[in-house]
Write a structure and sequence with these properties.
The protein has 843 residues and is an alpha/beta fold. The protein has 33 helices and 22 strands.
Length: 843
């Protein structure tokens, strides 16, 4: 592991005494409480773990479970994080903080991150081994913190770690979901959802902050009162209120130099029960109000297929946004006094449209709670907020029915109307009074039943709006925000996503990291750009042999994971072909599945041909109400059932769908993958981060010219990536042609045969029409141009087959991928945000 070459120094700013407005300032000369110290770090940590096991967990070593050992170890390490905070804390207030608002933080397991970043991996391993416990067992006992769905939440987690590693003072704000995203299981190939119970035995990493509790209102009415000189003030009187209680999780940076805070809000009722109602015998009704309130932080992304589900989602978004803004405004007032200086000392980043309600909520706080004039409040708001857009899909750009907004957030709807009126009036003053043009830039979409456009609202209220890849940002300017961009051509900027190398290289793949350190030097641990030095060894046969041996080890570990999770035995010498991401039609898992069907048919037709052995690995969750996505999972599982049991295939093709895809599973899959499937319809994937993680670990990418795939190609070289299909312009052109799907199918005998076999019940003989909706959609609709790109996808896959046979060439490409992914570090992303968007000092 990396412990031998890691040293930990400590300095922090945000966790502990100044994480909530009104907390006592750090006292000069603070020192950690005295602890017995032997001078032996292993012995000290061993005794600390035993003490936590006894006094915090209440167990003896003889009675402790692996989960108890995990909690005791986490608590012992948490003490060291607190020491790192306190020992290096400056009594001065940072000049500027970043506040990162995100509905998702997919942080996964934290033990390995904490050990790695503090330089305590080997110390912890030895301390536990002295107690007869293996570190791997303890790590496995930690549940994944299921606080996100996919790339959006994992990106937020990477950004938080990078900000801590770069010593950027920051607080992340989100929701402490009781259950987070659902736990996925497969029953006869059908996705089943169950609550994710990651908090069943508590969270040893968090600090509960009851003193940081805020009241969140819903519904009610608005009144007016006259102030001097004819000034009118409006006052919101909510019909119901909810308490938002802070729970802080420390985010420790690389080498323990800095620790930031992830503050997660839990919804609590003002009263645990209606006592009179309870004493009157209505024991269930007495807690009904509490259940409704606490549902806000119960589950991530409740289904919005019903009106009540839509309302709960809006409640979630406003709940955490309001609590976060109240918290940061209170902190600023306590530290600085005058709110007019908020833009100078706070940068608020809205991660997608989920916290877009921050625009009217910050205005409401400034207007009502602090008595500012409209012009001052608007200046503060538009110079403090920034907005990251993550999608170009119209259905993913949130809109809310005006009726729902007026009922649930009446004061905010008033503010939105006024912002919109002033915005449209300004267009008229500049000669832009065309009705169609005004309708396109209005915050209210009146063509679809009067809905508030949250993307437009975030755009208008932000100082900067950024895309997350070069292509995505260009498309933002020319599509979804075309007319708004024309009004302010400097507002949209690009900030290509990145990933934290501490998690997805050092921690995820210690063997490869050790190899890089031996060849390039220890600088590679601190500076991702040092990875470029590996390129000098890409053609070196001795280094290729070491690289290949490392990959074999990781693939053997992945084969074991596959067997444990699916019961399917796979050959590590085969090409491991991986597509891991949430299931969505635009990500085109279906294209991969149908190519698998065509490959199966080809092998059946020519069983004696020298086929390149492949293992197709799928992982991902479908939204509970997304019927077509769940049917795609079922098709993949049914294909696997037939292919894996067919003696004619003889192991040359295996198909695996791994259930309950999550961060810890990704950490096993990514280092063992040979091929990374990034095959979304061009122009529809904003960026991607899985593509970066896989390429960093040496997987070659097969992909479209979409999202960050373009920039990956530009960095790794066109010879070291496999590109196919239409580009974004080609997609737009072809989608405008009539009957493009039918013509593409007719022109492709291979595609036609695969669809015919599926349609005839080849994979579902007991229910021949099971996959008819999939086939019908492809024949008559095919919004994501799967049929159009199929033949080129088949071509590039056979090119990959040939490339896999030439191992020297393959390992050269893989090494160059690892080396040239240096630019895709989230440290680089955070430096760019800090310089161009937040205007905050790094380090």
């Amino acid at each position: 592991m990396l412990n031998e070459i890691l040293g930990a120094t400590a300095r922090s700013e945000d966790i502990g005494t100044r994480t909530a407005a009104g907390d006592a300032p750090a006292r000069p000369g603070w020192t950690a409480p005295a602890k017995p110290a032997s001078g032996d770090p292993v012995a000290d940590l061993r005794e600390a773990i035993l003490a936590k096991l006894a006094y915090a967990i209440g167990k003896t070593p003889e009675t402790a479970r692996e989960r108890d050992w995990f909690a005791a170890t986490a608590l012992a390490l948490r003490d060291r994080i607190v020491d790192a905070c306190m020992d290096g804390r400056s009594t001065s207030i940072p000049n500027k903080r970043v506040y990162y608002l995100s509905l998702e933080f997919l942080i996964g397991r934290l033990l390995s991150d904490a050990m790695n970043n503090l330089g305590l991996v080997d110390t912890t391993r030895r301390a536990l081994r002295d107690l007869g416990i293996e570190l791997g067992d303890v790590e496995a006992a930690e549940p994944d913190a299921a606080l996100g769905n996919g790339g959006l939440g994992r990106l937020a987690a990477c950004f938080m770690e990078s900000m801590a590693s770069l010593s950027i003072p920051a607080i992340g704000y989100g929701i402490r979901y009781d259950h987070g995203l659902f736990k996925q299981s497969l029953e006869d190939g059908w996705q089943k959802e169950a609550p994710e119970t990651w908090l069943a035995e508590g969270n040893p990493w968090e600090f509960v902050r009851p003193e940081a509790t805020y009241t969140i209102g819903f519904g009610g009415h608005v009144t007016m009162s006259a102030i001097s000189d004819g000034v009118i003030r409006r006052h919101w009187h909510p019909a119901e209120t909810v308490r938002a209680v802070a729970h802080d999780v420390p985010v420790v940076g690389w080498r323990g130099k800095h620790v930031n805070t992830l503050r997660l809000w839990k919804a609590e009722a003002n009263s645990p029960l209606e006592l009179a109602q309870f004493n009157g015998g209505d024991h269930v009704g007495a807690v009904a109000a509490r259940s409704k309130v606490e549902a806000i932080s119960r589950v991530l992304y409740p289904s919005d297929s019903s009106e009540s589900g839509q309302e709960l989602r809006l409640r979630q978004e406003y709940f955490f946004t309001s609590a976060s803004l109240q918290d940061l405004v209170s902190r600023h007032v306590a530290e600085r006094g005058d709110l007019r200086s908020l833009p100078d000392h706070a940068a608020i980043q809205l991660n997608d449209t989920h916290p877009a309600i921050a625009v009217p909520e910050l205005m409401r706080i400034l207007l009502e709670d602090h008595g500012l004039a409209w012009e001052d409040a608007w200046h503060i708001t538009t110079h403090t907020l920034s907005y990251t857009n993550h999608t170009l899909l119209p259905e993913a750009l949130e809109t809310w029915p005006v009726e729902l907004m007026e009922r649930l957030l009446p004061r905010h709807m008033q503010i939105i109307y006024l912002i919109n009126w002033m915005h449209l009036e300004e267009q008229g003053r500049h000669g832009r009074a065309d009705a169609a043009q005004l309708a396109s830039v209005s915050l209210i979409d009146e063509a679809n039943g009067k809905r508030v456009r949250m993307g437009h609202l975030a755009f208008l209220g932000a100082r900067r709006v950024n895309g997350v890849s070069a292509l995505h940002t260009d498309l933002m300017r020319s599509t979804v925000f075309k007319d708004l961009h024309a009004l302010d051509t400097d507002k949209i900027v690009n900030k290509t996503n990145g990933i934290t190398f501490r998690r997805w290289f050092h921690n995820c793949n210690p063997e490869l990291t050790k190899l890089a350190v031996e060849v390039v030097g220890e600088r590679v641990l601190d500076d991702p750009e040092a990875l470029l030095g590996l390129a000098d060894y890409a053609a070196d046969s001795a280094f290729q042999a070491r690289y290949a041996a490392m990959r074999t080890s990781r693939k053997e570990a992945l084969a074991k994971v596959v067997a444990e999770n699916s019961g399917i035995v796979v050959d590590p010498s085969a090409l491991f072909d991986t597509q891991i991401k949430r299931i969505h039609e635009y990500k085109r898992q279906l294209l991969n599945v149908i190519e698998t069907v065509a490959l199966y048919q080809a092998i059946k037709a020519e069983p004696h041909k020298d086929w390149t052995p492949r293992v197709k690995i799928f992982g991902g969750k479908a939204a509970p109400s997304y019927v077509q996505a769940k049917l795609i999972i079922k098709l993949a599982c049914d294909v696997a059932k037939l292919v894996n049991s067919d003696p004619d295939i003889a192991g040359r093709l295996k198909v695996v769908f791994l259930p309950n895809y999550r961060v810890s599973l990704a950490e096993a899959i990514i280092p063992g993958s040979d091929l990374s499937e990034q095959i979304s319809t061009a122009g529809m994937e904003a960026s991607g981060t899985g593509n970066m993680k896989l390429a960093l670990n040496g997987a070659l990418t097969v992909g479209t010219l979409d999202g960050a795939n373009i920039e990956i190609r530009d960095h790794v070289g066109a010879d070291n990536i496999f590109i196919f299909g239409l580009d974004a312009a080609g997609v737009q052109k072809r989608a405008a042609e009539p009957d493009y799907a039918a013509r593409a199918i007719a022109a492709s005998p291979r595609l036609s045969a695969a669809l015919d076999f599926i349609e005839a019940g080849g994979f579902s003989p007991e229910e021949r029409g099971r996959f008819q909706p999939i086939v019908d959609d492809l024949r008559h609709n095919d919004r994501y141009l799967l049929t159009v790109d199929f033949d080129d996808y088949w071509r590039v896959q056979r090119e990959i087959d040939a490339a896999w046979i030439d191992k020297a060439s393959w390992w050269k490409k893989a090494i160059l991928n690892t080396a040239r992914m240096a630019w895709f570090s989230s440290d680089r992303s955070m430096r760019e945000y800090a310089d161009d968007i937040w205007r905050v000092k790094v380090g």
